[in-house]
Specification:
The strands form four sheets. This protein has an eight-stranded mixed β-sheet. The protein has a six-stranded antiparallel β-sheet with strand order 2-1-4-5-6-7. Strands 13-14-15 form a three-stranded antiparallel β-sheet. Helix 6 (255-323) runs antiparallel to helix 8 (380-446) and helix 11 (649-662) packs across helix 12 (675-685). Residues 124-131 and 134-149 have low confidence and may be disordered. Among the domains are: 1-137 and 632-713, 3-Layer(aba) Sandwich (Rossmann fold), CATH 3.40.50.300; 214-453, no CATH class. The relative contact order is 0.14. The chain has helices spanning 43-55, 114-117, 151-158, 163-212, 224-241, 255-323, 328-361, 380-446, 455-568, 612-626, 649-662, 675-685, and strands at 8-15, 24-27, 32-36, 75-82, 85-93, 100-105, 111-112, 120-124, 131-136, 147-148, 369-370, 377-378, 575-582, 588-596, 599-604, 635-641, 667-672, 691-700, 703-709. With 713 residues, it is an alpha+beta fold.
Length: 713
């Protein structure tokens, strides 16, 4: 039989794909294709080339499809026969070797969008190398090129219920998303509440701090109008004071800006005046300090001069008393004469003492003695008495002379000392008078005192300047007090403005709390309601689906069992069942089970209880059962790679019979190494015009080599 689909594969060109190198073209002419050959001979590459051309590497990303020993491109092109002519579908691997590009052209050569031509192109094939490729006439909500590997979905689709589990999964996903949103909104509500409460608390703290010492004093709490009136009053006072500020110039400004302008003008005015007064005070204080220093010098000079004169006069009197009517020169002459007399007296005394020693040395018993000098005879005793008298007289005279000499010396020394002191004091008096003159002359030039300056005029200038400085100091303090008073007024007004702002901010925060917080709570409640609705709807939907499947699955299981028994004969496990279940994520699933008429119990097909032949057969059953219910498909292909592993000859014939029945709606592409057992059965079932067979002869330098195998009646 030949399928009556809108598109059939007329030819296939392969270059650089898998085992292929240089381009090879196979002309299928819409027939069913059987590929024979041993493993590794290249037969499977044709089946894989069709799959890759249609779907790329959607199910096996990262697979290497390019022949690594071929430098040319990797390209697969199919020619599709349609009622309006020949279409071409080509897939070309990009130079990077990962992604590929697919193009579809109509008979005129114009490029078309695949989704527009094949609205729903999909494949069923959890088993490697086995695919049902199907393109529906009309699009559905399922994405094109979907790889349907889920047995559950195949059953749902067969029963026309494929949207129900999808809707259930969608509701489950929505419920989970809304649960996440609930948690996020809940966190946002909590965070917003904390932020708003903290901001309101901060505002309350500021208000409490202001009202604890209210800037308006004991008056009533001011309104905005009251505060504005205070600002206008400040502007008027500032203007009256002379500051460049007027209420008219401040019209249209906010409270903050008006107050800023007033503060700037007042500070500039008062600070400027204060700076001028302080500078003048500094200058005057400097003059006062210099004048006080000059006055101190002048007064000190007068005092010292008078003191020096008085002392000098006293010393002069003392000098006169000391000289006793003499001059120092007279006293010095007297001293010179006394010292001469003292020397003569000493000489006499020396002569007397020598004579006495001489007499002592001469024998006194000899009587009279002759003087060795004057040669006069003397009586020694009498002479000794005379000499002793002379010695006593000379000693007394010498003492008198010595006492007179010492008195003269002391008188002269005292007189000279007094004279020197008088001279020194007189010099100091002159110097003090000079200092006074210089101080007064400086006062005339520096302080502008009229000539001739006197100590009295200088003292009057100092007193006057001191009074001026004191007045200036009072003015500075007055200006500083005025500035401080203005600062207090402005600061109090600022605090009033802040008070109004804080009250307004609190009202806004409270409104935000009431509106936004309530809105979030409402959203949270609405999400909870939606999630409850989604959960209830999904529960109801799953319940209805479960009830529907309870009715529909037994006939499906019977049909699958019928196909399974035809493929396997009478196996130990001779019944197929479909059990409803649920995945870990809550989605519903269908589990293919086998059982035996010989005893109770069911087993999953993946539990390894089936032999190889039964296991391979049960993998083919869904394709035969569900692929026969397509409604006029655009493209329907059944690709099988070695479907008869562990099959005996009888089972192979049963399989081929089922495949022959499938050609009523699908085009076959079967790759197998069972040529000897396939060909006799194919010759019985197929007409020569409906089938074409190739034998893979191995892989050469140019890729796999094939030869035709005659098939058909």
């Amino acid at each position: 039989m030949m399928t009556d689909t809108a598109f059939r594969i007329e030819s296939l060109s392969i270059e650089g794909f898998k085992a292929f190198t240089t381009q090879q073209t196979f002309r299928f002419e819409g027939r069913n294709i059987f590929l024979f050959g041993a493993n590794g001979s290249g037969k499977t590459s044709i089946v894989e080339a069709i799959r890759w051309c249609l779907f790329g590497l959607a199910s096996r990303p990262g697979e290497i499809v390019k022949n690594q020993f071929y430098e040319g491109p990797c390209v697969v092109q199919m020619t599709l026969a349609a009622r309006d002519g020949r279409w071409t579908m080509q897939r070309r691997l990009r130079p990077s070797g990962g992604e590929s590009d697919r193009t579809l052209r109509d008979p005129s050569g114009a490029e078309k969008n695949l989704e527009d031509v094949f609205p729903q192109l999909s494949r069923i094939g959890p088993r490697e190398g086995t695919h049902v490729i199907y393109a529906a006439q009309q699009p559905s909500s399922r994405r094109p090129e979907a790889d349907i590997t889920d047995f559950s979905y195949v059953v749902y689709r067969y029963l026309g219920l494929e949207e129900v589990p999808r809707l259930s999964d969608t509701l489950s996903a929505l419920s989970k998303d809304w649960a996440i949103q609930e948690e996020e909104i809940c966190d946002e509500v909590e965070s917003l509440g904390e932020v708003l409460n903290q901001r309101i608390a901060d505002v309350d703290e500021t208000l409490s701090r202001i009202t604890s010492e209210p800037p308006w004093g004991t008056a009533l709490t001011p309104t905005n109008a009251d505060t504005r009136a205070k600002i206008d009053a400040l502007a008027g006072d500032a203007e009256n004071m002379g500051a460049p500020c007027s209420a008219d110039a401040l019209d249209g400004l906010s409270h903050h800006d008006r107050l800023y302008e007033i503060e700037t003008a007042v500070r500039s005015f008062l600070s400027g005046e204060l700076a001028e007064v302080r500078q003048e005070l500094t200058d005057r204080s400097s003059l006062l300090k210099n004048a006080q220093a000059s006055l101190q010098i002048a007064e000190h000079a007068i005092l010292q001069s008078a003191e020096g004169s008085r002392t000098a006069e006293g010393l002069k009197t003392e000098l006169d008393e000391t000289l006793n009517g003499y001059q120092i020169e007279d006293l010095e002459q007297q001293l010179e004469r006394v010292e001469g007399d003292f020397q003569i007296a000493q000489l006499k005394s020396d002569v007397v003492r020598s004579s006495l020693k001489y007499l002592e040395a001469v024998d006194s018993e000899s009587g009279n003695e002759t003087c060795p000098i004057c040669h006069v005879e003397h009586q020694p005793e009498q002479l000794s008495l005379q000499l002793e008298g002379l010695q006593a007289e000379g000693d007394s005279q010498a003492n008198d002379i010595l006492e007179q000499r010492d008195e003269l010396r002391q008188q002269i020394s005292a007189s000279k000392d007094l004279y020197d002191r008088i001279r020194t004091l007189e010099k100091q008096v002159v110097e003090h008078k000079n200092n006074l003159s210089r101080a007064l002359e400086a006062a005339e030039g520096v302080f502008g005192i009229p000539r001739p300056a006197t100590v009295e005029s200088l003292r009057a200038y100092v007193l006057e300047t001191d009074n001026v400085c004191q007045n200036m100091q009072n003015a500075v303090e007055s200006q500083a007090d005025a500035l401080k008073t203005w600062e207090v007024r402005i600061d109090n007004t600022k605090r009033e403005i802040q008070f109004h702002e804080m009250r307004l901010r609190k009202e806004r925060l409270q409104r935000l709390y009431d509106v936004r917080y309530k809105a979030l709570h409402d959203s949270l409640k609405e999400l909870g309601n939606l999630r409850d609705i989604a959960d209830d709807t999904r529960s109801l939907l799953n319940s209805q689906l479960h009830d529907r499947l309870e009715k529909e699955l037994p006939p499906v299981a019977e049909e699958m069992t019928d196909v399974y028994l035809r493929l396997t004969g009478s196996p130990t496990f001779d019944s197929i069942g479909i059990r409803q279940g649920e995945n870990l994520d809550g989605s519903m699933t269908l589990d293919l089970r086998v059982s035996s008429s010989r005893g109770p119990g069911t087993w999953g097909v993946d539990q390894g209880i089936l032999n190889g032949q039964a296991s391979n057969a049960i993998q083919l059953v869904p394709y035969f059962v569900f692929s026969r219910y397509q409604d006029s498909p655009l493209l329907d292909l059944l690709l099988l790679d070695d479907p008869t592993q562990a099959f005996d000859t009888t089972k192979i014939k049963l399989l081929l019979t089922e495949l022959f029945d499938a050609t009523s709606h699908a085009t076959l592409f079967v790759a197998t190494h069972e040529e000897d057992r396939f060909v006799p059965v194919l010759n019985e079932l197929f007409e020569a015009d409906h089938v074409r067979a190739y034998r893979a002869m191995g892989v050469g330098e140019d890729g796999p080599r094939f030869e035709d195998v005659p098939i058909g009646i």
